[in-house]
Amino acid sequence: xxxxxxxxxxxxxxxxxxxxxxxxxxxxxxxxxxxxxxxxxxxxxxxxxxxxxxxxxxxxxxxxxxxxxxxxxxxxxxxxxxxxxxxx
Length: 88
Hints:
Shape: flat
Number of strands: 0
Distance between the termini: 18 Å
Number of helices: 4
Order of helices and strands: HHHH
Number of domains: 1
Largest sheet: none
């Protein structure tokens, strides 16, 4: 028995280093969403996205040491948004 799940955004958070990079990343995620992501993302509604964002934020905290949890970066925000679009 196989189960099909949705995907995460195709926007890539790996090069996000600044506020401008983050803004460009969010624009790329929005473009992906508008091009069909709403029907393809695992969490294509605001309610599911926010639920995924909360869940991935809690999960990420659990496997990080205290110092790295406090080091919020623009890339971290982008990675959390990426994960929230596809978190099951």
